[in-house]
Every structure is written in structure tokens, then in C-alpha cells.
Amino acid sequence: IQVDGTAPLVVDNSPNQGYTGDSFLFNATVIDNIDLPENLTVKVDWVQGSNSGNVSMNYLDGNYFTKSVTLDLASVSDLVYEFYVVDSYDNSYTQPSVSVSVDDNDSPSISSVSASPTPQSIGGYVNISADVTDNIAVNEVFLNIIYPNSFNENFSITANQTENTYFCNKDYNTVGTYTYNIWASDNSNYFTISGNYNFQIRDITHPII
């Protein structure tokens, strides 16, 4: 009767970096002194943010086992995992816990950009607003305005916030079409620039006789 008392050998080939909301491919080379790779049971136990699992890995050609998982979009906490392997003789090996750093590589999202009212009369106030969100946290929001005379004004509206809406309520005294856009960044220095939008300032006050 053949008796095997040797546990399988595991070599971790997984990446040493992960990114929010992206796939992470666990990769291990597993070798046993007797069993063929396809007869081994290989699992990975993992947790990252609110995502976790204890799942079987897929056997590939040679001695490779892989498993793709999706990391938490809203967390930069480390990915912590360990491999567990057992052969047909119940010899098992549990890899010591491994931690992989996770970075945020997702830019903020800008939507619902608007200026109201338009047209507006000379000296009247125009409220420019936009919804800005990020998977982790919005860092800065800027408003860029090009005046009808090509004068460019760029300033922060980060402090002007109601929930996810950032705004600027400002008066304008030059007649013509104004072009504006919104720029937003997150804490990882990823940024997004909206498209260009327009509003108009007109002389819409009737003469007084």
C-alpha cells in the first residue's frame, strides 16, 4: 500500500498590487510528489473591503491554478488572502496570510451640469451646478469660465456643496455667450473634466418711457 505523507508545494505568483473595482487574478504553482495537478484541491480564502470569498481555483496546463475576483470599488483596504491545498492522501498545506495593497485608480464622475437661468439679464445671477461623485472621496472641484471677451476665470467651488451637488451663484455684467466646464479630482489625484457648456447674458430689460 502506497502511503504519502508529503504535503503539496505552493508557489504564489499573484500580483503584488490591486486596484479598486478591478479584477485581481490569484495565480499559484502547485506541485505534489505523487498526485497529478488535476487531482489536487486548491482554494483561496480572501477578503478586501466588503468583498470576500473562499473559492476553488481553476486548473490550467502545467501546474498552474488561477482564480479571478473583483475588488471592492469603494475601499482601499488591503487584500488579504491565503491558499489552501490538499492532495488525495489528505496531506494539506495552508499558505501564511498575504497582504496586497489596493490603490484607487477610478476618476470622479461629473453629471447634471447646468446653468440657470439662461439667458440672464446684465448684472443678474446665474447658478452653475454639477453633481460630482467618487468611489472613495471627492477632493477638489473647480469651475472654469471663459467670458465673451476671452477672459478666463478658474476658481474652486469645493466649499459650495449640498450633498453631491457643487455650485456657483454669481453675477455677470458682460453681454454675450459664456463657456464653462467643471474639473474634479479625488484623493488619489485622478481627475475628470466635463464637456463645455454655455450660458448667455443679454440686455433683456425693456426701455422705460
Detailed description of the structure:
- The chain has 209 residues and is an all-beta fold.
- The chain contains no helices and 20 strands.
- The protein has strands at residues 9-12, 17-19, 23-31, 41-48, 51-56, 58-59, 64-70, 79-86, 92-94, 98-103, 109-116, 120-121, 125-133, 138-146, 152-156, 161-162, 165-171, 176-186, 191-193, 197-202.
- The strands form four sheets. Strands 2, 4, 5, 8, 9 and 10 form a six-stranded mixed β-sheet that branches. Strands 12, 14, 15, 18, 19 and 20 form a six-stranded mixed β-sheet that branches. The chain has a four-stranded antiparallel β-sheet with strand order 1-3-7-6, with no helix packed on it.
- The protein is rod-shaped and about 110 Å long.
- The N and C termini lie far apart (115 Å).
What's the tally of helices?
0
Question: In which range does the helix fraction lie?
Answer: under 10%
What profile does the largest beta sheet have?
Answer: 6 strands, mixed
State the secondary-structure class.
mainly beta
Strand content: over 45%
Give the strand tally: 20
Following the backbone from N to C, one meets helices and strands in this order, namely EEEEEEEEEEEEEEEEEEEE
